[in-house]
Each structure stands twice: as structure tokens, then as C-alpha cells.
Amino acid sequence: KNALSFRRGFEINHPLEAVVVTKPSSMKGAKPEAMSFLEVKPENIVVSCLKKAEESEDIILRLYESTGLETDVKLKFGFHVKAVQELDLIERPLNEEVIIEGNTLTLKVKPLEIKTLKLRVT
Fold first, then answer.
1. Torsions phi, psi of 25, nearest 5?
2. d(Cα 90, Cα 47) in Å, to the nearest integer?
3. Which of the four, 85, 90, 100, 105, has the lowest number of CB atoms within 10 Å?
């Protein structure tokens, strides 16, 4: 668990695909040197799904804790998120309050817990 071998295996079997994005003509000022769509901390949190919601234009984000430790998770988005709602595994709303400040979301994840979030973007 400490070597995070599960994460390395996941990364090898499911590599991310990079896409070059050009600066839209409507964007003012200089382009940032680097930008991340989603930054996830700490490393024991694994993103297992990022997709468009079935019933709306929202984004579904699923993540899990992989080492058996209760964890304070920090998600930093590279885009504006208007609202966040926690869902169950079949994407039905739960009554859990999720607070986002700016473009950063913090939440507690129990050992080996799977979290599904619906992101309303603008």
C-alpha cells in the first residue's frame, strides 16, 4: 500500500490522453504556462471515472480511497464549478452536503470508500 503500486498499475492500464487546447480568442491576457483540468490530493485518492452525466450536461466524477486510511481530500478544478452534489453508485442524489469554495472542494473520505460527485459547471 505504501508504494502505491495499485496506482501505478492503474496508470499503466488506463493512461491519460493529453489534448492540446489553444487559447480562445475571447480570453484576455497571457495563457498560463500550465493548467490542470483536475488536481487531486493526496495520492491515495484515485479518480476512477470522469464522464458526462446521463441525464444532463453535468460532469460525473467518481473517486475512491485506496489504502485503507480515512483521508481529507482536496480537489482543485481548472474550471468554474457552480454546484456539487454527492450521488450513490447508480447516480441517485444523496442528502450529503458538499461545499465548494472558489474552484476547490474538500471532503472527508472513509477508508476504501467510493465517492461519486455530480459537478454543475457554467
1. -65, -25
2. 17
3. 90
Q: Is 34 helix (H, G, I), strand (E, B) or coil?
A: coil
Helices then strands, each counted (H, E), the chain: 1, 8
Block residue for cell numbers 470508500: 113
Tell me the CATH class for 5-121.
Answer: mainly beta
pLDDT tens digits along 20-52: 666 666 666 766 666 788 999 999 999 999 999
Name the amino acid, one letter, at 48. Answer: S
Q: Beta strand pairing status for 114-121 and 59-65? A: antiparallel
Report the C-alpha gap between 107 and 67 in whole angstroms: 17
Segment 66-85, tens digit of pLDDT: 999 999 999 999 889 999 99
